[in-house]
Write a structure and sequence with these properties.
The complex is a heterodimer of chains A (90) and B (373). Chain A is α+β, with helices and mostly antiparallel strands. Chain A has one domain: Coenzyme PQQ synthesis protein D (PqqD) (Arc Repressor Mutant, subunit A). Helix content of chain A is 40%, strand content 21%. Chain A has three helices and five strands. Chain A has helices at residues 37-43, 52-63, 67-83, and strands spanning 7-8, 14-18, 23-28, 31-34, 88-89. Chain A has a three-stranded antiparallel β-sheet with strand order 2-3-4, with no helix packed on it. A two-stranded antiparallel ribbon of chain A has the order 1-5. Chain B is built from twelve helices and ten strands. Chain B has one domain (10-365): Aldolase class I (TIM Barrel). The longest helix of chain B is centred in the middle third of the chain and has 17 residues, at 204-220. In chain B, β2, α2 (75-84) and β3 (88-93) form a beta-alpha-beta unit. In chain B, α1 (44-57) packs parallel to α2. Chain B has a ten-stranded mixed β-sheet. Chain B is of the alpha/beta class. Classes of the chains: A alpha+beta (90), B alpha/beta (373). At the A-B interface, β2 of A face loops of B. Chain A: Pathway: Cofactor biosynthesis; pyrroloquinoline quinone biosynthesis.
């Protein structure tokens, strides 16, 4: 994911808090993906206006963690979502 | 024996067969041969209660199916209730019965996703298989409305010996319609399809060709179109992981409220099913004997019991073991380790070489024996 790319969840893909299993999930056609903390933190920041770079800047500040680490931790996850068309980029 | 409920995970998906009524009469319909009549269908309030119970039980994905779910006049109301229950709502439809106005109402109700079936890539094929003249043209119109509204779309191409040559065109159509996903589903031989094996069974060559086309298209269309593929079952060497494992992932509610571990489970004669009219969905999921019957691996005999794949495919499809071997607890005969594998492959080749067998169409529920309303 390029830092200036603006990722967003397309229609039909949404975050949902699963009360029964006490976890965040990403709901998409025929799929329910359990999210870990990093996944949930990134996806809940997607607003269709801020770039991946800005979002990871904000998360780095919020969690007092190195930005490089956040970018690295989320790159594979976001690519997998993109390949399944659960994530789009403007 | 008291059951240990903590060992059973809640279900993720529920297939709600709202009705068995359908304008089409596809010869591979997955509905049971014994169809539910309209006057036995659950009413709106009961379905609404079932959706609420499903959400509380842990269901995340709701598939609204049939028959043709658009044959239910209360479909829009049901979608609203399902969303209120926290469910992701997927409409599985032929498109027939949907108008632009109804699609807009479904949009307002919060419908998440549409799965549109494809019986063929042109009118002559599609209308012959669906047994409904004008169905293909209507479906193409519905696909335009779906795209205009912006619904996420999956195209569900059902393939068999008569139309497998249309697979490349089906993939193109999915891209043209703006679908993000296509299901390339080779007919599975349950329900009405069992009556049509002589005319629908793909040849081994067709099955291999479809494998190749799908594999190439997956590479070429990566990031554009996701392809989920159900290969020709009888020509495979390992069975499908049916229902993700019996009683582990999903459940099916029939039009009359009967709750089944899979849509074909009624073909296993000794199973006893419960109904949402009598019991809660939670009680049925955790305690009904039909759900317990093939959960986990304790029920397995050899060659499954000592097999390293026993938690990969759970011995395959119970209904297929019943239909082919006559024993629902046998290894699915598709499996290369089954003593019946060779016979099944020979049977598949025999079905595939029958020339000019007629299509046996699905009938309408209760038409002959019941007067029209």
């Amino acid at each position: 994911m390029e830092l200036d790319a603006i990722p967003y969840l397309p229609r039909g893909v949404r975050l949902h808090f699963d009360k029964v299993r006490d976890t965040w999930v990403l709901l998409a056609p025929e799929r329910a993906i359990t999210l870990d903390q990093v996944g949930q933190a990134i996806l809940s920041e997607l607003d269709g206006t801020r770039s991946f770079g800005q979002i990871t800047d904000d998360l780095a500040a919020k969690y007092n963690a190195p930005k490089d680490q956040i970018v690295q931790d989320s790159a594979g996850f976001l690519k997998a979502l993109r390949d399944r068309r659960f994530l789009e980029v403007q | 024996m008291a059951l240990d409920r903590s060992a059973i995970r809640p279900p993720i998906a529920m297939l709600a067969e709202l009705t068995h009524r359908c304008p089409l009469s596809c010869p591979y319909c997955s509905n049971p041969v014994e169809l539910t009549r309209i006057n036995s269908e659950l009413d709106t309030e009961t379905w609404q209660s079932v959706f609420k119970q499903a959400g509380e039980l842990g269901v995340l994905q709701l598939h609204l199916s049939g028959g043709e779910p658009a044959s239910r006049r209360d479909l829009e109301t049901l979608v609203t209730s399902a969303r209120d229950a926290g469910l992701y709502t997927n409409l599985i439809t032929s498109g027939i019965g949907l108008t632009e106005r109804r699609l807009k109402a479904l949009d307002e109700a919060g419908l998440d996703h549409i799965q549109l079936s494809l019986q063929g890539t042109d009118a002559p094929m599609a209308d012959q298989i669906g047994g409904y003249k004008g169905g293909f043209d209507r479906k193409m119109k519905v696909a335009e409305w779906i795209a205009d509204i912006g619904f996420p779309l999956t195209l569900n191409a059902v393939l068999h010996r008569r139309n497998l040559h249309q697979l490349p065109r089906a993939l193109e159509m999915a891209v043209e319609m703006g679908a993000r996903r296509i299901e390339v589903a080779t007919v599975q031989f349950h329900g009405w399809a069992l009556k049509n094996r002589d005319t629908l069974m793909p040849t081994r060559e067709q099955a291999r060709e479809a494998d190749r086309i799908v594999s190439e298209a997956r590479a070429a269309l990566k990031g554009t179109l996701v392809i989920d593929y159900v290969p020709a079952d009888y020509h495979s060497d390992f069975p499908k992981r049916c229902m993700g494992g019996w009683g582990t992932t999903g459940l099916n509610v029939a039009p009359d409220g009967k709750v089944l571990p899979c849509h074909a489970a009624e073909t296993i004669p000794h199973l006893q099913f419960d109904n949402v009219r009598d019991k809660s969905l939670s009680d049925i999921w955790y305690y009904n004997s039909a759900f317990q019957a093939y959960r986990g691996t304790d029920w397995m005999s050899e060659p499954c019991q000592s097999c390293e794949r026993k938690t990969v495919d759970f011995g395959g499809c119970r209904c297929q073991a019943m239909a082919i071997v006559g024993d629902a607890s046998a290894t699915d005969p598709v499996c290369i380790k089954s003593p019946h594998h060779g016979a099944l492959q020979a049977q598949a080749d025999a079905h595939a070489s029958v020339a000019d067998a007629p299509l046996v169409y699905r009938e309408a529920p209760g038409k002959e024996s019941e007067p029209a309303e």
